[in-house]
Design a protein that fits this description.
Elements: H1 8-11, H2 19-40, H3 42-71, H4 75-78, H5 85-98, E1 103-104, E2 109-110, H6 114-126, H7 136-153, E3 155-156, E4 161-162, H8 180-195, E5 208-209, E6 212-213, H9 219-249
Antiparallel strand pairs: 1-2, 3-4, 5-6
Membrane topology: Multi-pass membrane protein
Subcellular location: Membrane
Transmembrane segments: 18-36, 48-70, 76-99, 111-129, 135-153
Length: 259
């Protein structure tokens, strides 16, 4: 149905096909947006949602067409594909960038591993569910598009820089340590495709595009961004803890409540 209704590539990401999908997407937007929006700013936050949603939909559409021609199964042409989970996967990458070393108390893992664990769990579940084609490509492309945008394209108004070329946010950081020597050479090929040339010492601001200097963030800026993210998270947790303490100390007053 995307041909000729091309606007589906924009609108599909905002339509859920089930009640639990609506609940998960709403909670994910509220909780992850509460951390990312104050750091990125409202305009950049909305821009991230639009770009990741649109490009993820384009990639999923192309994948569906390719699967049809490879298998000649018409289900890949007509199965409904929609949902906000691609953007939520991109949000996890954003949180990985901002507070990578923050530890989740319940799971006892660091935040930087959340995108990888989400994809690993989704791939494992796909072997046991026939509906995996309706969500797995969206999660994979949402994660990858989110990383590409934050790695190479996101502008920083306060510093007029672009992207995050720090080693802590390299593509190989999504994989275990022992796989990185294999992943890095492959990732460098796509890096040169996106940047034209590798970073050179004469270009202190970062990436180049087609041989011309391209504004890019340096390691100092990336470190500052992570510090701001960690500080914002700590302040939010402290405020919530203080509010909870005040609520527990308020005396209970009997009587009628009126709205």
């Amino acid at each position: 149905m995307t041909i000729p209704f091309g606007w589906n590539l924009i609108t599909a990401g905002y339509i859920e096909q089930s009640v639990h999908g609506v609940v998960v997407s709403t909670l994910g937007l509220l909780f992850m947006g509460k951390l990312l929006e104050p750091i990125w700013g409202s305009k950049e936050f909305l821009k991230f949602i639009f770009i990741v949603n649109f490009l993820t939909s384009v990639c999923v559409f192309i994948t569906a067409i390719a699967l049809y021609y490879l298998t000649m199964q018409e289900k890949y042409l007509y199965m409904p594909l929609s949902g906000f989970h691609g953007v939520l996967a991109g949000f996890l990458v954003g949180i990985k960038q901002i507070v990578p070393d923050q530890e989740l108390y319940l799971l006892k893992i660091k935040v930087k591993w959340l995108p990888s664990l989400m994809l690993l769990l989704s791939i494992a579940i796909s072997f046991f569910t026939p509906e995996s084609a309706t969500y797995l490509p969206t999660l994979i492309f949402g994660t990858y598009i989110g990383w590409i945008y934050l790695r190479y394209l996101q502008r920083k108004p306060e510093s007029k820089l672009r992207g995050d070329p720090s080693e802590d946010f390299a593509f190989s950081t999504f994989f275990p340590e022992f796989l990185r020597p294999i992943i890095d050479p492959i990732a460098s090929i796509f890096h040169r495709m996106l940047c034209g040339k590798s970073e050179v010492s004469s270009n202190p601001q970062g990436y180049t595009l087609g041989g011309a200097p391209l504004l890019g963030s340096d390691p100092i800026e990336a470190s500052r961004r992570r510090e701001r993210g960690a500080r914002a998270l700590e302040e939010r947790l402290a405020a919530e803890k203080l509010a909870a303490g005040r609520d527990s100390e308020e005396p209970h007053i009997e009587g009628n409540d009126h709205v």
